[in-house]
Amino acid sequence: MSARFAKLDDGSWGVKLAPDNQASGTGDSVRIVTRAGRESVATLGDLVGTNQYGDRIFKIAQEDKPEVDDSLTPITEIGAFEFGGECFIVKRTKDGERLYAMKVVEHTADRINEADGVVQIELEYQRGAMAFLREEHRLDEARAKELSIRYGKCIVCGRKLKAAKSVEAGIGPVCMGRVRSRAA
Predict the structure, then answer these.
(1) Three-state SS string across 82-131, please?
(2) pTM score
């Protein structure tokens, strides 16, 4: 019975219902657990369509939209962010006009980390993540270094660290400017 908030193409909010969700449609109420772990209820409006996974996407009433903390600062530059226990990499589109977020997903593979464990990551596009990620979620130097060492590459840009100074720091010099300093 999974339901998630979804940002629609027109900028409004909707709800995405997984194929196993028994809600029949317009007028039904669905329970949603947000990424922050908060529970919310939304009433389904008109069906917008379905996606490639068979999820049905419905409009919702304005008053049912997810709470977004507007007191926090929107993201304006690329970098690495952590929210709800998940790590996100924010990048620019090829035309440089917009930002988008990729979620870091761990997979078992053939890369040994500092604890002789095997960790490999993939980045998966996260539609709607820019709606809840904020500048205050940007990784600080210590966390960026920890994740870079764990994955064997820079957590911000994904490049393998080669220079001795960068390997020691756990992050490259350009990307160091894209994380929060320890003083912040």
Answers:
(1) EECCEEEEEEECCCCCCEEEEEEEEEEEEEECCCCCEEEEEEEECCCHHH
(2) 0.58
